[in-house]
Amino acid sequence: QVQLVESGGGLVQAGGSLRLSCAASGSIFSINVMGWYRQAPGKQRELVATITSGGSTNSAESVKGRFTISRENGVNTVYLQMNPVKPEDTATYYCNALIAPSTRTGFWNYWGQGTQVTVSS
Question: What are phi and psi of 43, to 5 degrees?
């Protein structure tokens, strides 16, 4: 089975930096798109940023200029560089990916378990 595992979350002061990582493992033939979503308490899950296999990126207006998404295809890993962070960035961050497990399957949507990011004032 395909698995997405996030890491890098934690407590950080406002104005500081943080880098999240998401590694995909298991049966993987191809990864089309990978991205990050976040959900704060009492709010709906929202898109943070995505990156395609060709390197095209898309990000939410609230993080433009502060967050950078990147992808390392050789190790099936996507990163989210957060600098500088703000208190309103506090949320659970989830990794998402469209992955084809084999040559005879289409692309399926997968989610990680999430990693907590807390930004203090």
Answer: -120, 165
Query: What is the pLDDT, as a whole number, of residue 51?
Result: 97
- Please state, for a pLDDT cut of 90, what percent of the chain lies above it: 93
- The position carrying tokens 């960035």 is 89
DSSP 77-92: EEEEEE-S--GGG-EE
CA nearest neighbour of 85 among 7, 17, 10, 9: 17
95, 4 in Cβ contact below 8 A?
yes
Closest Cα partner for 34 from 96, 93, 106, 108?
Answer: 96
63: three-class secondary structure by DSSP: coil
Would you say residue 71 has pLDDT above 90?
A: yes
Cross-strand bridge partners of residue 70? 79
Q: Position of tokens 């976040």?
A: 38
Over range 57-63, report the average pLDDT: 97
User: Is there a contact between 112 and 2 (Cβ–Cβ < 8 Å)?
Assistant: no
